[in-house]
Amino acid sequence: MQRSWLIGGVAAIGIAFAGVAVADPAPTSNDNAVVAQAVVGGDYSYVGLNQGLGHANVYGGDIGGIVPFSDSFSGQVTGGYQRFDVNGGGANDWNVAGGLAWDRSQGRLGVNVGYSSIGVSNASGNVTNYGVFGTYYAGDQFTLGARAGGVTGTANAFGFTGSRTGGYAGGEAIAYATPDIAVRGTVGYVGISGGHQWTAGVHGEALLSEKTPISAWAGYDYASIGNNAFSINGNTFSIGLKYYLGGGGSLRTHQRTGEDDWAVAPLDLTH
After folding, report:
1. Distance between CA atoms of 101 and 130, rounded to whole angstroms?
2. Is the domain defined by 2-257 classed in CATH 2.60.40.1220?
3. Alpha-carbon distance 36 to 68, whole Å?
4. Pairing with 245, which of 53, 143, 191, 225 sits 20 to 30 Å away (CA)?
5. 162 has which bridge partners?
6. In percent, how much of the chain has pLDDT > 70?
7. Interval 121-138: pLDDT, tens
8. How far apart are CA 94 and CA 88, in angstroms?
């Protein structure tokens, strides 16, 4: 089980860069200018694995913020911690990421870098990702996103240290059933030194009140990690809460004028 987490870190989620800047701008009725704001969240996940590896309970939280440098540029940082409990043992997962973006009313283009680290009693692993991302606001009801780049993974277990490099790619789509209800779908692929990971997921989020901007969300993610001869498949069910500090308005407004919790996020080591 512990080894599978390290493999998963080396073969983490990825996303493809889609050249959104060349698309014809779609009309939008809201102001998408970035404003200084932050998001704090807590979550719980149940992860089930095949190959007799059992399941894990995962709980933790994330925090992130964004600041505009001008009408056209902004910077963002995000970080988080998750605790894994499984079969009487546990592991700690830390991550941090940041990005710089060129902001337009139709979306964003930028560069990002992220770092994730997981540690257990006699082993540890980390993943560094670096690349580009793009987000396109396709009218009021849809947001399309993509990211891609390189990844370096390192494992340290029982005195042995190894490092491998590769790349990641994939995309996202968000549909707004109402300005305060969003459904997000994501897909991803990463390949590194003969191994690979495919991922797919769907998450729904609802802003409970625009005056007290707390949202609730739930999601499902699938991952397949392995090579031509062997694979491990995982199913993750997650729930969580978010509190939006600063900004204002609907969930769509918070997501388009504030922190991007997908394109700039670090690659996930574990689930």
Report:
1. 14
2. no
3. 6
4. 143
5. 155
6. 84
7. 677 788 899 999 999 999
8. 20
Cα distance between residue 271 and residue 7, in whole Å: 11
**How many other C-beta atoms can be found within 10 angstroms of the C-beta atom of residue 165?**
12
Collapsing DSSP states into helix, strand and coil, what is residue 218? strand
The amino acid that residue 168 corresponds to is Y
Q: Give whole-number Cα distances, 271 to 16, 58, 90, in Å.
A: 20, 9, 14
C-alpha distances out from residue 130 to 5, 28, 53, 164, 271, Å: 21, 31, 31, 14, 20
Mean pLDDT across 215-244: 90
239/167 Cα distance (integer angstroms): 29
DSSP 8-state secondary structure symbol assigned to residue 53: -
Q: What is the pLDDT at residue 221?
A: 94
DSSP 159: T
CA distances from 223 to 42, 186, 198, 230 (A): 22, 12, 6, 14
Q: Which residues pair with 179 in a beta bridge?
A: none
Q: How far apart are CA 186 and CA 255, in angstroms?
A: 16
What pTM was estimated for this model as a whole? 0.84
d(CA 80, CA 40): 10
How many Cα atoms within 13 Å fall on the side-chain side of residue 133? 29
Give 211: exposed, middle or buried? Use CB within 10 Å, 0-12, 13-18, 19+. exposed
Q: What is the pLDDT of residues 59-74, one digit of tens each?
A: 999 999 999 999 999 9
The residues, any chain, with a CB within 8 Å of residue 238's CB and separated by 6 or more, are 43, 44, 45, 46, 203, 217, 218, 219, 220, 221
Q: Which stretches within 1-113 are classed as H helix?
A: 2-10
